[in-house]
Amino acid sequence: MSGGLLVAGTTSDAGKSVVTAGICRWLARQGVSVAPFKAQNMSLNSFVTREGAEIGRAQAMQAQAARVEPTALMNPVLLKPGSDRSSQVVLMGKPVGEMSARGYHGGRQESLLGTVVDCLEQLRSSYDAVICEGAGSPAEINLRRTDIVNMGIARAARFPVVVVGDIDRGGVFASFFGTTALLAKEDQELVAGYLVNKFRGDVSLLEPGLDMLKSLTGRETYGVLPYAHGLGIDEEDGLRVSLRGAVRESEVAPPVGEELLRVAVCAVPLMSNFTDVDALAAEPGVVVRFVDRPEELVDADLVVIPGTRGTVAALEWLRRRGFESALRRRAAEGRPILGICGGFQILGEHIEDEIESRAGAVDGLGLLPVRVRFRREKTLTRPVGRALGENVEGYEIHHGVAEVLGGAPFLDGCRVGAVWGTHWHGSLESDAFRRAFLRAVAADAGRRFVPAADTSFGALREEQLDRLGDLIEEHADTSALLRLIETGAPTGLPFIAPGAPS
């Protein structure tokens, strides 16, 4: 086998990421050497590869689904929004500057097509198949001229395209037809067909519509995937706790000890890598919820201030909404608080930022003896260490450099009383360390909570990826997908008017 496929979507959050991961896992289980690829990603959830490159977490998850090591080749362009109108551009894993949306789409994006095509070709030379994920919708006709992630890359690589539609939103047939009809003739020639996602009910009731869709478009539907809870792992757009979906207490696995442990995550602006709390949600008896009001902290045993692309903006948001006094009371009462990355910086005494916010000198919450200075170079590392008597692995993504002036050492940060801070994302995925941390939190919170001795976050992640592979194997036409990957889009596909100019 030698080829590839582009998984596009009628909308954002249609399920492109999980379908791509599912196809990668299914192919890997067949013994196919496969790699994921997304030319351009816009996300605040990112990951650091072993070579020190920053890529989208969705592509890292897809690489795990494919059972290969993630690299910068799999996501050559990453956009990290800093506001509604500008983003940091990360090229081949390294930041190259801030750019407005108009500036990026006005010229920079088009110039990157050669780079992303080169990355794709390098992957194709190393793997039997490359499964590409699109972004948003391929029918964003106002952006087609500079497109490098949907039909732009499909046409450059001559890859067939399968369009995923979220039927749970409604209007999926109109979305499939309209998406195809808005494309130029040369792009339509690559759209092989469709994949229905998140279907509830009796598939036989859908079949007449699928037959009509084929008669209207001349294209096959390659499967109807049922709605499945808890599959949104490491997504770009959605804010949800993935593994085991521990959001409502009624859905939480029974605790090992006598009580539940309640975790409140402050939903700060430009929140990044909120996937850090997935490992907490994976624990039986742990309830994780995102909050935006200080009164929601009252019954929380642990408050987490997560990472953010806008540390100073998040600090101002916390103050404006009344969180500062609530967090100060918690610290004075010895009730646990954990700050991760930007959240760690917010807990410090002082921030000097002429890079991210350009706000200059700003006072932090003063709950940890830490001073932070932002520098232009970004720290991108995969540290390993020990804390609470256990081995820990993590990854760092930050411009702010912390000077720790006191407190007890905690990873790269510190602890004062029940207030903890570190730059290390992903540290809670280290099972023994997570259990030790939760025992300390429960003791400080006065809870009779005992973490499960056998919870393996890595095993749970593998189970999730296998569930994605099962969805494809059991509900998609895998023989037809293999033919697409091997031979490309069928010839003679009809053109659907009106079509958009190329």
Characterize the largest beta sheet: strand count, sense, and whether it forms a barrel: 7 strands, mixed
Mean pLDDT: 93
CATH architecture of the largest domain: 3-Layer(aba) Sandwich
Name of the level-1 CATH class of the largest domain: Alpha Beta
Number of strands: 27
Helix content estimate: 25-40%
Structural class: alpha/beta
Radius of gyration: 23 Å
**C-alpha termini separation:** 31 Å
Strand content: 25-35%
Please tally the helical runs, counting DSSP H or I stretches of 4 or more residues. 15
Strand order across the largest sheet: 15-13-16-18-27-26-25
Instruction: Supply the CATH superfamily name of the largest domain.
Output: P-loop containing nucleotide triphosphate hydrolases
Poorly predicted tracts of residues = 241-248
CATH overall fold name of the largest domain: Rossmann fold
**Overall tally of domains:** 2
Overall body shape: globular
Overview of the structural elements:
Keywords: Cobalamin biosynthesis, Glutamine amidotransferase. The active site is at 341 (nucleophile), 425. InterPro entries: Class_I_gatase-like, CobQ/CobB/MinD/ParA_Nub-bd_dom, CobQ_GATase1, CobQ_N, CobQ_synth, GATase_3, P-loop_NTPase. There is one protein chain. With 502 residues, this protein is of the alpha/beta class. The chain folds into two domains: 3-232 and 462-487, Rossmann fold, CATH 3.40.50; 257-452, Rossmann fold, CATH 3.40.50.880. The strands form seven sheets. It has a seven-stranded mixed sheet. A six-stranded parallel sheet has the order 2-9-1-10-11-12, sandwiched between helices. Helix 4 crosses helix 5 (151-157) and helix 6 runs parallel beside helix 8. The longest helix is centred in the last third of the chain and has 19 residues, at 457-475.
